[in-house]
Amino acid sequence: MIPKLHYISQGKSPVVHLDNIENACIHGATLVQLRLKNVPLDQVLNIAKEARKITTHFNTKLIINDHYKIAKEVKADGVHLGKTDSCPTVAREHLYSWQIIGGTANTLEDCQALIDKGVDYIGLGPLRFTSTKKNLSPILGFNGYRLITDELKTKTPIIAIGGITLSDVTNLLKTGIHGIAVSGEITHDFTKIEAFQQSLGASLIEEQRHTFK
Q1: For the chain, where are the E strands, in sequence order?
Q2: What is the tally of structural domains in the chain?
Q3: CA angle (203 as vertex; 197, 205 as ends), nearest 5
Q4: pLDDT, tens digit, 9 for 90 and up, residues 104-124
Q5: 100 is in which domain, residue-wise?
Q6: CATH assignment of the domain containing 126
Q7: What is the model's pTM?
Q8: ∠ CA 119-144-186 to the nearest 5 degrees?
Q9: Taking a C-beta distance cutoff of 8 angstroms, is the pair 89, 118 a contact?
């Protein structure tokens, strides 16, 4: 089972990313993604090792952004691959059988390509403008999600992402998506995790009980 709420780490430094991941875990996050950009690989590895210690302590799933070899080395729960990152089929050959793979999509064609490559979930967005990500893809809006999910009719979980706030959850769920990924809204106030979980109808006990190992 793919958790319905994904926290994407933010921070002005790798250490701040770790602090924010720990805060997210403390406040009940069931899945966090370590997303470090423009950081040397050896540093990403060291931070990933620390993130694995934190998430293991809180029984929280850890996803590593971009680096599937690091995800394997630290035994993270999986990896999330962007559109310009490694192919999911290549990562699948390298990873442990229990590790999950997520992929980024912006269009119906992107989604279908990821499904054909056997990803475990799709991060589809953005809902609206967000300063978190550079080179932002075209905005989807609520109607964009509805059109794509109606056409796909897939069992592969669709995770909405991109400038999502608590007030968006109800309308997003109506489009047929499985869950959401949130960065800024949670980083600014980690106590909102509980409210997000409640709005999503996510079962904290069920999500923590399930493992991919």
Answers
A1: 5-8, 31-34, 61-65, 78-81, 100-105, 121-124, 158-161, 179-182
A2: 1
A3: 120
A4: 999 999 999 999 999 999 999
A5: 5-209
A6: 3.20.20.70
A7: 0.92
A8: 70
A9: yes
